[in-house]
Records
---
Amino acid sequence: DAKTTQPPSMDCAEGRAANLPCNHSTISGNEYVYWYRQIHSQGPQYIIHGLKNNETNEMASLIITEDRKSSTLILPHATLRDTAVYYCIVKTGANNLFFGTGTRLTVIP
Amino acid sequence: GAGVSQSPRYKVAKRGQDVALRCDPISGHVSLFWYQQALGQGPEFLTYFQNEAQLDKSGLPSDRFFAERPEGSVSTLKIQRTQQEDSAVYLCASSARQKTGANVLTFGAGSRLTVL
């Protein structure tokens, strides 16, 4: 099963881009990379996912390296409401998602 | 409904009591998941349903934990003879498979269980 490695915590100044790295060196060719975030006392919230190509939506951009062994989630203009724990996930097993402990992002005013 | 609804939001039980946690998934979502989240940890998979069929229950920590989804919609997670180590937030999620084959989950706010 592919697992991910993320830094435990990061800070980002409000209004600046937040770049959250993730290593997934054992990912297999047909496994997606997913990003979720969890704001305090809420359930996890889906952000974005990708397979090989870079992806962008209204929340974030996902940059996946050519060898697919790592990726970066980019929040282009971080706000205080983006303070949360961010989980990088590679789908394991038939259906479940392995969350790990994520990166706690703190956006500083 | 517009989202995944869980009840109760908070439950306090005495050790040894049985508890039942309810999940109302998004209408039309065939897949339903239960996760357990201990304080300071990420969510951990418990079980998965496709419609009414429980296809994976490998994450259930003991035979005191039981989940059902009899009509393929609402699901109930039951914990018998609760223990202090069962104290956690129990998260429910549902999903509709994407055209690409990816599996995007929508989570409820969770049910926080405290066992005294």
---
Amino acid sequence: GEDVEQSLFLSVREGDSSVINCTYTDSSSTYLYWYKQEPGAGLQLLTYIFSNMDMKQDQRLTVLLNKKDKHLSLRIADTQTGDSAIYFCALDRGSTLGRLYFGRGTQLTVWP
Amino acid sequence: EAGVTQFPSHSVIEKGQTVTLRCDPISGHDNLYWYRRVMGKEIKFLLHFVKESKQDESGMPNNRFLAERTGGTYSTLKVQPAELEDSGVYFCASSQDRDSSYNEQFFGPGTRLTVL
């Protein structure tokens, strides 16, 4: 099985909230990241959370971390059509300055 | 400040040919990473340079892949000979050296490689 799992697709209506989920098997990560990839562009760091935190809020973005269930989520409030993109969950698995472990990405489609 | 750049943006080659991908990291970033995403799958790590040294090359799929970073600036990833399963998007990322484990990796736009 995969180490980092995400559902592949999510569709929401403009103005609604979106919740993108990520589950993982290895609990050693220090930081957990959310990256966004817009069409034709590279990955852009959207937000991150330190492993000793349960929640982090940054404007329309809320990250929740449930270490017991090894579950990470990204909530986007008031989703806009410009939020349509692929969202990747990434973990460091305790590796300082090393590789990141990514999920398959969730394609978010926002309908007007 | 310029971001991470990659060249070419697209490459279409035939099986058995050779292709060289180039990555220019953000100036001053000692860490340089190569990743690959095969269609619909996760982004997988290939290798990590610190300056010109290979810190971790555990993700390199086989000896048809050769990565270099002479002088610790730009990096090249050569695939020789290319096989069909090498098709995918190759991402390069770079990050600064820092004392904390927070490691924001800045990604380039990727090179889409198609092997026919």
